[in-house]
């Protein structure tokens, strides 16, 4: 028998299913794109049933193409994005489309809460900030705007928990997803009734799932799920953790002197603390399943997804060339940037396509007729690094801040040597990259290895399943150049954001948006 672990990672853009051995090595993976539904400006939704079907297809294809005996699967563990919400009735049927964590419909509601002091009071109870894609304000929006949804809902769920319900019938969550959702007091790891009372949301309390450890077997693959996935009925299913925590575990982050960074749809930075950080107050704060610690996280949608957008909309010729050469368009981008580093470049890119600090929009500054495509792509790479530095400057400032000595990087830039080196230069700390590429799914399988007794606890699992494959030291000369450019970048944000937020600009844009039809984006 070859012992195998199946990790599922349902993120913002892709659902991935990965097969691991018990040493943490990726055997094979399968993925499907998630379709983003955009019924109104600022709304980002998902068809939960469609995501489940994509997951089943991935699992079945993965088993078939690897010739894996379903009997070799020791456990199946889901992971998924945090925040957003999945609302189901008593039969487990969605009562409406799920919301993705990039949804911003609750912004006006949060503004009202802020003006009345409610936001500060709720934040105090849940020990983190209030943000638009967080489950708690989304529930408030639903209660105000779709009261029938509240009436029909039996269970409030997160992404991974919805998938696990479909796998084995279990309805529960873990402390990490509950923390990201903003429904618990992090110190107590239990639902904050005080927060729900302060927010006027007590009608939701009996719809919240019970909370249990992420390293616990909660059931076995049901007969129905076995038929849909090709897995063996009864195969253990583990509760798991949400994707940011999973990536941190898969990066081997266990101590306060390590910072976990994920560069993907979001720019995500997480630091480990003995107790909740209150100054600075992080975007997200969750219990961390290592030695009773807490993970403080800063997250903004200002990262590598900006390059993905550029490749789709502006680099079609390069994408075609890459296809003919049997390469990725991202390989072409890496080559362009490597060549552009040899010359001066004063171009700045602001990676705010999906939202920016103080309302700042995306854009370039410093373009001239003589610049090349390589110069522009380099500016995108640097702009993403600057966005990470901007967020880190908040997370690492204050009496409760951590003092990391190294950054463990995951996400697309971790697979680019030129970009990873740029992160080291721009952030001023060594960058270490752990083995593997599918960190969310690997974090799920780390949990499974503990739940099934393969490893005694999370630290033992990390020691056995995680190793550092690459390390990039900051280059002092490049670091000086990037710091000078970053200072201009930071100052420009302060200037640009107020200009864009002028009422007449916003009113004009809203008038245009009201005439647009709903969209679906793959």
From TrEMBL:
A biological process term (GO) from this entry: carbohydrate metabolic process
Domain Carbohydrate kinase FGGY N-terminal: 6-245
Organism of derivation: Mesorhizobium sanjuanii
GO molecular function: kinase activity; phosphotransferase activity, alcohol group as acceptor
Keywords: Kinase, Transferase
Carbohydrate kinase FGGY C-terminal domain mapped to chain residues: 259-451
Family: Belongs to the FGGY kinase family.
Gene3D superfamilies: 3.30.420.40
InterPro entries in UniProt: ATPase_NBD (IPR043129), Carb_kinase_FGGY (IPR000577), Carb_kinase_FGGY_CS (IPR018483), FGGY_C (IPR018485), FGGY_Carb_Kinase (IPR050406), FGGY_N (IPR018484)
Domain of life the protein comes from: Bacteria
Protein's recorded name: Carbohydrate kinase
């Amino acid at each position: 028998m070859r012992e195998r672990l199946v990790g599922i990672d349902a993120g913002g853009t892709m659902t991935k299913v990965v097969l691991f051995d018990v040493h943490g090595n990726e055997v094979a993976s399968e993925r499907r794109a998630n379709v983003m539904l955009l019924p109104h400006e600022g709304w980002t939704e998902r068809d939960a049933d469609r995501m489940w079907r994509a997951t089943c297809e991935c699992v079945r294809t993965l088993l078939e193409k690897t010739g894996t005996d379903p009997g070799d699967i020791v456990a199946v563990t889901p992971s998924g994005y945090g925040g957003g919400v999945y609302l189901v009735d008593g039969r487990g049927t969605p009562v409406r489309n799920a919301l993705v964590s990039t949804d911003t419909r609750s912004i006006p509601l949060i503004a009202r809460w802020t003006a009345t002091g409610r936001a500060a009071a709720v934040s105090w109870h849940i020990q983190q900030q209030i943000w638009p894609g967080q489950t708690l304000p989304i529930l408030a929006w639903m209660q105000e705007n779709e009261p029938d949804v509240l009436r029909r809902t039996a269970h409030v769920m997160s992404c991974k928990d919805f998938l696990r319900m479909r796998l084995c019938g279990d309805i529960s969550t873990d402390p990490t997803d509950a923390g990201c959702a903003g429904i618990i007091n992090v110190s107590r790891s239990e639902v904050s009734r005080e927060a729900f009372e302060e927010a006027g949301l007590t009608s939701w309390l009996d719809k919240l799932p019970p909370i249990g450890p992420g390293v616990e077997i909660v059931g076995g693959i049901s007969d129905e799920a076995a038929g849909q996935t090709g897995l063996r009925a009864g195969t253990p299913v583990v509760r798991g953790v949400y994707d940011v925590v999973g990536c941190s575990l898969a990066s081997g982050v266990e101590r306060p002197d390590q910072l976990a960074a994920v560069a993907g749809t979001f720019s995500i930075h997480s630091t480990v603390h003995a107790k909740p950080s209150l100054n600075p107050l992080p975007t997200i704060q969750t219990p961390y399943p290592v030695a009773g610690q807490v993970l403080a996280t800063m997250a903004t949608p200002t990262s590598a997804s900006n390059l993905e957008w550029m490749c789709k909309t502006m680099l079609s010729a390069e994408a075609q060339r890459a296809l003919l050469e049997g390469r990725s368009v991202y390989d072409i981008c890496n080559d362009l940037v490597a060549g552009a580093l040899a010359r001066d470049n004063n171009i700045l890119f602001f990676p705010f396509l999906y939202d920016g600090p103080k309302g700042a929009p995306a854009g370039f500054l410093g373009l001239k007729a003589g610049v090349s495509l390589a110069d522009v792509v380099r500016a995108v790479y640097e702009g993403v690094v600057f966005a990470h530095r901007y967020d880190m400057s908040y997370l690492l400032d204050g009496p409760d801040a951590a003092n990391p000595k190294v950054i463990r990087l995951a996400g697309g830039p971790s697979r680019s040597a030129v970009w990873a080196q740029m992160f080291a230069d721009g952030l001023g700390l060594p960058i270490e990259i752990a083995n593997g590429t599918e960190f969310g799914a690997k974090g799920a399988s780390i949990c499974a290895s503990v739940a099934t007794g393969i490893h005694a606890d999370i630290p033992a699992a990390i020691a056995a399943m995680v190793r550092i494959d690459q390390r990039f030291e900051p280059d002092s000369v490049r670091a000086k150049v990037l710091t000078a450019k970053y200072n201009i970048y930071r100052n420009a944000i302060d200037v640009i954001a107020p200009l864009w937020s002028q009422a007449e600009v916003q009113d004009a844009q809203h008038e245009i948006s009201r005439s647009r039809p709903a969209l679906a984006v793959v």
